[in-house]
C-alpha cells in the first residue's frame, strides 16, 4: 500500500495508451470536469452527466431573469403597492417561461 501525504491523500500514477487518454479527455471535457474529477466520480460510482448545451445555459439564464422579475412583482403585491397591470405582467412573464421550456423540450 502506498504512503499517504501530509493531508492523507494517496497519489497514483497510471499509464494510458494514446487512444485511452484521448477517450478520457473527451469524456471529461463533455462532462465539464477535469480528468481527475471525472475519474474520482467514476471510482465513487457517482453519476456523470454531460455539460448542458449553450442553448440550455442561455435558457436557464432567461428563466432566472424572469424569475427575478416575478419575485419583484410578488413583493410589491404583498406590500399592497402593486397594480393590476403588474400582476398581468407577472403572468405574462410566467407564460414566457413555459414557452421557453416547451420550445427546448421539442428539440
Outline:
The chain contains four helices and no strands. The chain is mainly α and 107 residues long. The chain is elongated and about 70 Å long.
As a percent range, the share of strand residues is under 5%
Round the mean pLDDT to the nearest integer and report it. Answer: 84
Largest sheet: none
Q: Determine the structural class based on helices, strands and strand pairing.
A: mainly alpha
Q: Output the helix-strand order.
A: HHHH
The beta-strand count equals: 0
Low-confidence stretches: none
- Helix proportion of residues, in percent? 55-70%
- How many domain units? 2
Shape: elongated
Q: Can you count the helices?
A: 4
Distance between the termini: 51 Å
Using only CA atoms, what is the Rg? 23 Å
Structure characterization notes:
- The chain is elongated and about 70 Å long.
- It has two domains: 14-51, no CATH class; 54-106.
- The relative contact order is 0.08.
- α1 (18-31) packs across α2 (35-44) and α3 (54-78) packs antiparallel against α4 (84-106).
- The chain contains four helices and no strands.
- The mean pLDDT is 84.
- The protein is mostly helical and 107 residues long.
Task: Give the SSE layout.
Blueprint: H1 18-31, H2 35-44, H3 54-78, H4 84-106
Helix pairs in contact: 1-2, 3-4
Supply database-style keywords.
about 110 residues; about 0% strand; 2 domains; mainly alpha; single chain
